[in-house]
Design goal:
With 811 residues, the protein is an alpha/beta fold. Among the domains are: 10-211 and 352-398, Crotonobetainyl-coa:carnitine coa-transferase, domain 1 (Rossmann fold); 246-305, no CATH class; 634-720, formyl-coa transferase, domain 3 (2-Layer Sandwich), CATH 3.30.1540.10. Residues 387-398 have a biased composition (Basic and acidic residues).
């Protein structure tokens, strides 16, 4: 019996950078044998530090040591070792590829060439824009991709008197890696043998924006038309920073009561919650400033108001919840502190991290085990050169990767539905369970007056998150409703829920109870803070998860409180939960056992904010927010253009990032080689970083005389990463997305047809079209699903009469 879900699964890693490294780290955690093929000088991450720490010759950077846990390292010269590398490929199951130094750039080793020469492989290519389309070869960085995606403008974070700011850290790279891992695992479910073409622009759209195109098309207005601070949001208490949120009207009412201002409650107010809170911002901030962080958090928790401390690299590992849950571990080679794995499961078991390899540590071992004289390296029989697993490989089959799976989707809002939506788009039969008294929360956040007919069906967010699903309503407060849910679970492969732990436990729907109904069930629980620990029952929205993990700490300006990203926490949790579910399903395929998956939102967030605790524990460096500057490029910033935006404001920007000396030479040429740019000091990254203020002044003047399209064309033609800072609802205007068909128009029985985003990767074996059905109406499939359980029309009618099921919101 395999020890781990992916035992015997061999992945060759041709990637460089965080995205590919994180993808293969997740696969290694699942039990895969990851063989990292490096150039003789090593992966650039070996010599990199976000804080600029001196790594020292012959040493590896701490981030590399974290991301490379459990992998093998093989050195291959792209000029001399192609036959050896082909032999590695012939013995593998999958390849992860991104552009970079070494073999990935050698002739014949692009992803299309690899797949053609080794058709048995799953080849996962991670590129900024995808392998095709008009932008496929354009330069980009994580920062410029955030700009193109609309993620910098995002949900209106920041203040109108300053430039918008990117989400700090390098979260886009980690998101891309998590999606690449999930795509690779999904391909495995149908036997692999395909090319996966992942676009980091598209993963940024899904991870950093909130379905703005669908929202704008259905309602005729953007989600936010201006930047404004969230109130109270992140505020300064007596002894530190605390995040307090109001995601619903009830939470605003509770906040009013908590602060002693019940007179602020106005249930008839035409203002949004944010606008009502902003009217009382001064009083709220004064109240926060008069309390300690612990006092505020104790009160907020008692009132069921989302809250969290604002974590950073220095304090995060000491927070009581993480200590009790063992959320951080010691790096097995270099001894610094790093996040634990982003999800937990049993009896399916993740592999504990083993030490990262030294450069070329496993070269000779792999040369020996793959050396068979006279054999054609392209011959698929070469796969026998590696020790194979005892269980048979996954047979190739037609159909979508998740076809044949039934998923009971008991999720709400964003994190959970984003996970189950991916399963549905990949072919699973996903049955979304709501009730008429407690519908999915996204049905209620569109601002549609309750006087409008079928107002609960008009939410663009619900529509965007739930295509390809079926929908039922069950009153789970009633014994009959719970009995029907049990019968539904008995037909399922997977159950997913994302409530606080006490909710399902109150209903008796623990894993043991669900397992008693269906012994081989995979049950994925997605609580905000986990199933145990002192914060386990705290309500969790994206913003408090981001604060508690350290993502907020790096977002904003150094002279202001951090800004809430208000975007990453939910979809990041969803894609990590999908990875965990696919691993648990692999374990079930091999053993017949189901598993409990614990995919806490905060664990996934800690994983993508890993650099903060790593840099602090390894080097004593506390990473700080720096507006739109960042550790990978100099200059890197936003610069205003000479245009006005669609709202009539002088608020249009371009994002520019220079990561290499060659890109700096390109920028100088594009600018006409002005005298201020010709200093020898500016030829190196440290020199440019030291002169960043000077560069900003000159670049702001140059950009301020030009339109965004002109700036992009000029700089791209000289190889410089650049982007327009897009309003997120204008994503459909990007020709790259149009060429790749990222948006599909979806009809709907109540709403007008609207474009909906799809999967951020293309699978060479399909699907050709992702969205096959619109999001379900409330209870739309009650009769169909209940008939599948054996109920007749009379029984279904009685259930509706008794309020067990229904198709309208209960009042």
């Amino acid at each position: 019996m395999p020890e781990h879900p992916l035992s015997g699964y061999v992945v060759v890693d041709f990637s460089s950078g965080i995205a590919g490294a994180y993808c293969t780290r997740l696969l290694a955690d699942g039990g895969a044998e990851v063989v990292k093929v490096e150039p003789p000088e090593g992966d650039p991450l070996r010599s990199w530090s976000a804080s600029g720490a001196d790594i020292g010759e012959g040493n590896d950077g701490a981030l590399f040591s974290y991301l490379a846990c459990t992998k093998h390292s093989v050195v291959a010269d792209p000029d001399a070792d192609t036959e050896f590398v082909d032999t590695l490929l012939a013995g593998a199951d999958a390849v992860v590829w991104s552009r970079g130094p070494g073999i990935a750039g050698a002739p014949g080793f692009g992803p299309v060439d690899i797949h053609r020469r080794h058709p048995h492989l799953t080849v996962t290519a991670i590129t900024p824009f995808g392998l095709d389309g008009p932008w496929k070869d354009r330069p980009a960085t994580e920062f410029t991709l955030q700009a193109w995606s609309g993620g910098i403008v995002g949900l209106g974070r920041g203040t109108p008197d300053r430039a918008p700011v990117h989400v700090g850290g390098q979260v886009g790279d980690y998101l891309a890696g998590a999606y690449a891992s999930a795509a690779t695992l999904a391909s495995r479910m149908r036997g692999g043998a395909e090319l996966i073409d992942l676009s980091m622009l598209e993963t940024s759209i899904l991870g950093l924006t909130y379905y703005p195109v669908t929202y704008f098309a259905m309602l005729g207005r953007p989600w936010r038309d201006a930047r404004r601070l969230t109130v109270p949001g992140i505020a300064r208490a007596k002894d530190g920073l605390v995040d307090i949120g109001c995601g619903t009207a009830q939470q605003w009412f509770d906040l009013c009561a908590m602060t002693g201002h019940v007179e602020w409650i106005d249930e008839e107010s035409p203002l949004t919650i944010t606008q009502q809170a902003t009217e009382h911002a001064d009083e709220l901030y004064a109240w926060v400033a008069d309390q300690t962080v612990d006092e505020i958090r104790d009160l907020a928790t008692a009132f069921r108001i989302p809250n969290a401390p604002v974590a950073n690299g220095a304090n995060v590992a000491r927070l009581d919840h993480y200590v009790e849950r063992g959320s951080f571990v010691v790096n097995p080679r270099d001894g610094f502190t790093q996040p634990g794995q982003p999800y937990r499961m049993a009896p399916a078991a993740l592999r504990p991290p083993a030490p990262a390899p030294r450069l070329g540590e496993h070269t000779e071992a792999h040369r020996s085990r793959n050396s068979i004289p006279g054999r054609d390296p392209g011959d698929s029989t070469a796969r026998n050169a590696l020790p194979r697993r005892e269980v048979p490989p996954v047979p190739r089959r037609e159909g979508l990767p998740c076809a044949g799976l039934r998923v009971i989707d008991m999720t709400t809002f964003w994190a959970g539905p984003s996970c189950t939506h991916l399963l549905a788009m990949l072919g699973a039969d996903v049955i979304h369970v709501e009730s008429t008294r407690h519908p999915d929360g996204t049905r209620l956040i569109a601002g549609i007056p309750a006087t409008e007919e079928l107002w609960w069906e008009r939410s663009p967010i619900f529509s965007a998150l739930n295509t390809d699903k079926r929908g039922v309503t069950l009153n789970l407060q009633h014994p009959t409703g719970r009995e029907l849910l049990g019968r539904l679970i008995a037909t399922a492969d997977v159950v997913v829920e994302n409530f606080t732990p006490r909710v399902l436990e109150t209903m008796g729907l623990t894993y043991d109870a669900v397992k008693a109904i269906k012994p081989d069930i995979v049950m994925a629980r997605m609580p905000g803070f986990g199933l145990d620990g002192p914060w386990r029952d705290n309500p969790a929205f994206a913003y408090v998860i981001e604060a508690a993990a350290g993502i907020s700490w790096l977002t904003g300006y150094p002279d202001l409180n951090p800004f809430e990203p208000y975007s990453v926490g939910d979809p990041n949790a969803g894609i990590h939960a999908l990875n965990a579910i696919l691993l648990a399903l692999e374990h079930r395929r091999e053993t017949g056992e189901g598993s409990l998956v614990e995919a806490a939102m905060v664990d996934a967030a800690l994983a993508v904010a890993a650099e903060q605790v790593i840099e602090y524990s390894a080097y004593g460096a506390l990473l700080q927010r720096a507006g739109n500057r960042g550790p990978c490029a100099a200059p890197q910033n936003l610069y205003r253009t000479n245009e006005t935006d669609e709202f009539g404001r002088a608020d249009t920007w371009v994002a520019l990032a220079v990561e290499t000396d060659a890109q700096w030479e390109g920028l100088r040429e594009a600018l006409g080689s002005p005298s201020w740019a010709m200093s020898d000091e500016l030829r190196t990254a440290p020199g440019r970083r030291a002169q960043h203020d000077l560069l900003d002044r000159h670049l702001a003047r140059w950009c301020g005389d030009r339109a965004g399209d002109d700036i992009v064309t000029t700089l791209w033609d000289h190889g410089v990463p650049v982007a327009k800072v897009m309003q997120p609802h204008r994503q459909t205007e990007l020709p790259q997305l149009s060429a790749r068909g990222f948006f599909e128009t979806v009809p709907h029985p109540v709403n007008p047809p609207a474009p909906h985003g799809t999967l951020p990767f293309r699978l060479s074996r399909g699907p050709e079209r992702v969205h096959t059905t619109p999001a379900p109406l409330l209870g739309e499939h009650n009769a169909d699903v209940l008939r599948e359980l054996g109920l007749d029309d009379d029984e279904i009618g009685r259930l509706e009469a008794d309020g067990i099921i229904g198709t309208t919101i209960a009042r």
